[in-house]
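Dear colleagues,

As part of the handover before I leave the project, I'm documenting each prediction I ran so the next person doesn't have to rerun anything. This entry is a single chain, and its sequence is reproduced below.
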Amino acid sequence: VRSVALQWLESEGKSHEVSLVNHPMKTVSFIRLGDNVLSKSSVLNYVISSPKSGSFFTRESSGGKRKRCVSSGMIEMTCCLPKDGSGHFAEELMFLNLRGDGSCFNKQCLLLSCLSTLVVCFIDISKEIDDSKYVQLRELRERCNNVIVLLTREKDGELSTNEEDIIKKIK
């Protein structure tokens, strides 16, 4: 990581080049606990760029439906740099994406919670959630001051009793 450099031009034409390690920037991390009907990487791609030119590999990508042999547990990274004031973001931001189910990768979740300004955690409430995921979510909230828990579900309409119970436990 020490050799990674960021380069960008300001609106006045001034060029910047800084080492990623020596340049403080806000970091937003995305984690999924359990299986999820919603593609975390697709949501992240939509937020940071146009949906057609995503930065992160998704299940809709070519080869995205294949069984993962190596990539689960890896952390993908992209940076968004300001561009002439016309970009999505006013300041430099780093986005980190944990590949796979975060409940299987405690060390990576710990690292992301320590590095991140904000952690976005996806949980599908239409599926059964075991106690270890509640514990992991609580620990994540204790380590990182800013955690957004994004609850997803397969069906529209009324919440089931089980889904309501899950939401109460997550609060």
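The longest strand covers residues 93-101. Residues 27 and 137 are 19 Å apart (CA to CA).

All the best with the project,
I.
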